[in-house]
Write a structure and sequence with these properties.
The complex is a heterodimer of chains A (about 140) and B (about 200). With about 140 residues, chain A is of the alpha+beta class. Chain A has 2 helices and 6 strands. Chain A has a 3-stranded antiparallel beta sheet, with no helix packed on it. In chain A, strands 4-3-6 form a 3-stranded antiparallel beta sheet, with no helix packed on it. Chain A starts with a helix and ends with a strand. Chain B is α/β, with parallel strands linked by helices. Chain B has a 5-stranded mixed beta sheet, with helices on one face. In chain B, helix 2 runs parallel beside helix 3. Classes of the chains: A alpha+beta (about 140), B alpha/beta (about 200).
Chain lengths: ~140, ~200
């Protein structure tokens, strides 16, 4: 009875700790924030190894285009890094006109990007021609 | 005789082992990074500058039309012998194609980008000018003065990272100034950092 009560008290304590979440805009990382039942010196290496094993990496969540005040197409991309490690990569945006043809521009070059582990990232690109109506994006590993 | 044959064979073997020349795929270059600034770095810096300039709205002329822009002095403060046109030519091309500005070849930080403008005027004012159809010669007061100028500098900092490695930071700083008012309407800094062996030279 005493053991069950103690276990319940511990679970309750961890529950209260878990309830005390910082605002969503603030990301307090492992090693900085207090450890939890699911993330501590014992479980952390296991979680990291499993993440690497199943190949968690970069995901793109949303790509939004809009015309800015000067009439040029802007591309905003939101993504997140599912891995625990910082991931670096390169991306290239190619702009397409109304016929689906690529617009030749010096801005279509491989640019660097990176995302810290378990973090969101954003990319922004601006078309250098008003004729741009669409885009395509490619990625490659950082050399 | 035998020695001569052996020497010839060894020489042929060594020649065969030499690195052959290949063309770089400049569109999808998988080559490793180098300590100095290469064409990929200039492409990256130019792309960032262009996108910033275009999205800032600073080049949008009130009332419509296009600004006349000149490239003023872009200083190379790195230890490398680079031509700042490696950066500026890309930027000028994209600004022209964006149709927000038109570049002038009549004035520039390194003198007139096209000296022919003034050579033709010298011809017009000389005896040789009589050889030309007068209506085909440029008249006086026809050049348009620039309204905006783009200037800046490229410089580097070398830092000792640890016993075996060094860190080189390249800073690209550009600004656009309204030549009528003297006011700066756009500015950006782009940094490219490299870290490598102390044995690599960055000059």
């Amino acid at each position: 009875m005493k053991t069950i009560t103690n276990i319940l008290l511990v679970v309750l304590a961890f529950t209260f700790i878990a309830c005390d979440q910082p605002p969503a805009q603030i990301h307090v990382r492992e090693g900085i924030r207090s450890d939890t039942l699911g993330s501590n010196i014992v479980t952390r290496p296991v979680a990291h190894a499993f993440s690497a094993l199943i190949g968690e990496r970069i995901e793109i969540d949303k790509a939004v285009t809009m015309r800015n005040d000067t009439g040029f197409l802007e591309l905003h991309i939101n993504g997140h890094n599912r891995s625990y490690d910082t991931k670096q990569f390169r991306y290239r945006i190619e702009w397409l006109d109304a016929n689906g043809l690529m617009i030749q521009t010096k801005t279509s070059t491989w640019l660097p990007a990176s995302a810290m582990g378990k973090s969101s990232f954003s990319l922004k690109a601006v078309a250098p021609r008003v004729e741009a109506v669409d885009f395509r994006m490619d990625t490659k590993k950082w050399e | 005789m035998k020695t001569k044959i052996i020497i010839t064979l060894v020489g042929l073997l060594l020649a065969g082992c030499a690195q052959e020349t290949v063309n770089i795929d400049v569109v999808n270059d998988e080559g490793k990074a180098v300590m100095e600034l290469d064409y990929r770095d200039f492409a990256q810096a130019a792309s960032e500058m262009i996108q910033s300039m275009i999205s800032s709205g600073a080049l949008k002329k009130p009332g419509g039309g296009r600004y006349v822009m000149t490239t003023a002095r872009v200083t190379n403060d790195t230890m490398q012998r680079i031509d700042t046109d490696q950066l500026m030519a890309k930027i000028e091309e994209e600004l022209l194609n964006s149709r927000q500005v038109v570049m002038t070849s009549a004035v520039g930080g390194k003198g007139a980008p096209d000296e022919m403008i003034y050579e033709m005027r010298d011809i017009r004012d000389s005896a040789t000018g009589d050889e030309f159809k007068q209506e085909t010669l440029a008249g006086k007061r026809t050049l348009e003065a620039p309204e905006l100028s783009i200037a800046g500098k490229i410089f580097q900092r070398n830092i000792r990272y640890d016993r075996n490695r060094q860190q080189v930071e390249y800073y690209f700083q550009l600004m656009v100034t309204d030549l009528t008012t003297g006011l700066r309407i756009w500015q950006k800094e782009s940094i490219i950092g490299k870290r490598g062996s102390n044995r690599s030279v960055a000059w």
